[in-house]
Amino acid sequence: MNNLFSMDNGVFSFLGKMWDILVISILWLLLCLPIITIGPATTALYYTVVKVIRRERGYLFREFFHSFKMNFLNGMVLGIILMALYYILYIDLNFAKAMEDANMRFIFLAVFSAFSFIMLCGTVYVFPLLSRFTMGKLQILKTAFLMSVKHLPTTILMLLIVGCFAFIAWMQPIFLFFSSGICLLLCSLPLERVFKKYIPKSEDGEGPKIDEWYLE
Question: Looking at the domain assignment, is residue 54 inside a domain?
């Protein structure tokens, strides 16, 4: 009977994780409201989902705000750059759709659609990369797009996950209150396997002991 109500019970552990996901999803949504803070908010959400929810390290709010503050400037700038690029592509696509010549319309739509797809592929890597690696803003963008090509199956899988959650949230906006955390949790399953290939493990006995939770 004691085991039934133990906090180590699988059911209670699952419910606890779902509650944590709900809390940080709402927090992410609130911090995204200024729009320009979408970048650091998404970076913090991914970092917290992987470290606290998956690896059970640290505390929910402490880890979230630690990542949010540490990556605030870079995340905000990267978010603005991506939004500007998407806006340009949106204008280009509308321009292509308005073309009277059918052949030219088809060519330009194909070209701009291809650029949009490439943008989406790189975007799903940008903020997770920022949460884990120390790089300049341009290097983050370059690495994101290179990774998206090199690990294309993982990229396609993450795009499908994000697309499904975006569609459900569009159909049922209330889903936004907890979908973001679950979405990034699912994306982290294949993405963390990719990241491990680029993170050297420290040699035993050399330097201070580090909790390499990201290598588990």
Answer: yes
172 φψ region: left (φ > 0), alpha (ψ -120 to 50), beta (else): beta
In sequence order, which residues have a C-beta less than 8 Å from that of residue 186 and are 6 or more positions away? 161
Rounded Cα gap, residues 191 and 172, in angstroms: 27
pTM of the shown model: 0.89
* Three-state secondary structure string covering the chain: CCCCCCCCCHHHHHHHHHHHHHHHHHHHHHHHCCCCCHHHHHHHHHHHHHHHHHCCCCCHHHHHHHHHHHCHHHHHHHHHHHHHHHHHHHHHHHHHHCCCCHHHHHHHHHHHHHHHHHHHHHHHHHHHHHHHCCCCHHHHHHHHHHHHHHCHHHHHHHHHHHHHHHHHHHHCHHHHHHHHHHHHHHHHHHHHHHHHCCCCCCCCCCCCCCCCHHHC
Look at residue 83 and tell me if it is in a domain. Answer: yes
Q: Does residue 207 fall inside a structural domain? A: no
Residue 205 inside a domain? The answer is no
Q: Could you tell me the residue range of the domain that residue 185 belongs to?
A: 11-194
Query: CA–CA separation, 116 vs 88, rounded Å?
Result: 10
- The number of distinct structural domains making up the chain is 1
State residue 3's pLDDT score.
Answer: 55
Weakest-pLDDT range from 4-18, 33-47, 111-125 = 4-18
